[in-house]
Design brief:
By secondary structure, the chain is mainly α. Helix content is 81%, strand content 0%. The chain is globular and about 45 Å long.
Length: 179
C-alpha cells in the first residue's frame, strides 16, 4: 500500500478521537488559564478517553498518540515527495503550511502525553518522577502567560490539519452525492 493511500485510510479512523482530544485539551487549558474556570472533570474524561473506563485510558492514549505519530510520519513522507510542487487545492495548501508549522510541537505533545500516561498508569510512577513529561506536553516551559497560547496554537493546528485532511479524503463529497 502506498503512503498516500495509507494516510487517507487511517485519517477517518482517528478524526473524531483526535478532534475531541484537541478540542477538550484547548478548552481545558485556555479556560483554566484565561477565564479561571474550575477543574472540569468531563473535559479530561474526554481528553484522556476515560469514558472507555479507567483500565483503557493508557490503551486509548497509546493508540491515539501512535495514530497521530503515524499520520505525522506518513504526512511528512508525502510532503518530502511533493516538495516544491504547488498545491492547487486550498485545503491541501493549508494542510501543508499548518503541517510544516505544527510538525515538531505535535510530535512533542504526542510523545510526552504517551510517556506521561503510560508511566503513571502501567509503571506506577508518581507525578514527581514523570511530571516533566506533562509539563512538556502542556508547554509549561513557556511560562504562565505563554503556555496556554502554546496549547491553543498546537490544538488549533491539529484541528485545522484534521479538518483539511478529512476534506481532502473526499468522504464528505461522497456522502453529499449519495443523498
Amino acid at each position: 500500500m502506498n503512503i498516500r493511500k495509507f494516510h487517507r485510510t487511517i485519517t477517518p479512523i482517528f478524526f473524531l478521537p483526535l478532534f475531541a482530544t484537541a478540542l477538550t485539551g484547548v478548552i481545558y487549558r485556555v479556560g483554566r488559564a484565561w477565564f479561571n474556570l474550575p477543574h472540569q472533570d468531563w473535559l479530561m474524561i474526554i481528553h484522556q478517553g476515560e469514558f472507555l473506563g479507567k483500565p483503557l485510558v493508557p490503551v486509548y492514549v497509546l493508540l491515539l498518540g501512535v495514530g497521530l505519530l503515524g499520520l505525522i510520519v506518513t504526512g511528512g513522507m508525502m510532503a518530502k515527495q511533493l516538495w516544491g510542487r504547488p498545491a492547487k487545492q486550498t485545503d491541501r495548501r493549508w494542510h501543508r503550511i499548518v503541517g510544516a508549522i505544527a510538525l515538531l510541537p505535535l510530535i512533542l505533545s504526542a510523545t510526552t502525553g504517551i510517556i506521561y500516561r503510560l508511566a503513571r498508569t502501567w509503571f506506577g510512577l508518581d507525578y514527581e518522577q514523570v511530571g516533566i513529561f506533562l509539563s512538556i506536553h502542556e508547554g509549561r516551559y513557556f511560562g504562565t502567560i505563554l503556555h496556554p497560547i502554546y496549547v491553543l496554537l498546537v490544538g488549533v493546528g491539529l484541528i485545522i490539519l484534521l479538518i483539511t485532511g478529512i476534506r481532502m479524503t473526499g468522504i464528505l463529497r461522497q456522502r453529499r452525492r449519495s443523498t
